[in-house]
Amino acid sequence: MTDAVAPKTLQGVLAAIELLRSHYARLRQTHAGEVADELSTVLALLDEVDFARPDLDHLKPSGHGVTRSLSGHLASRNGTVADVLAAFRPLFPALPWRYSYEPRADLPGLENSMAWAELVGPIAPFGSRNVCLGITAIGPRVRYPEHRHPAVETYYVLSGTARWTAAGVTQERVPGSFIVHPSNIVHVMETADEPLIAAYTWSGDVETLSTFADA
Question: What is the pTM of this model?
Answer without folding.
Answer: 0.94
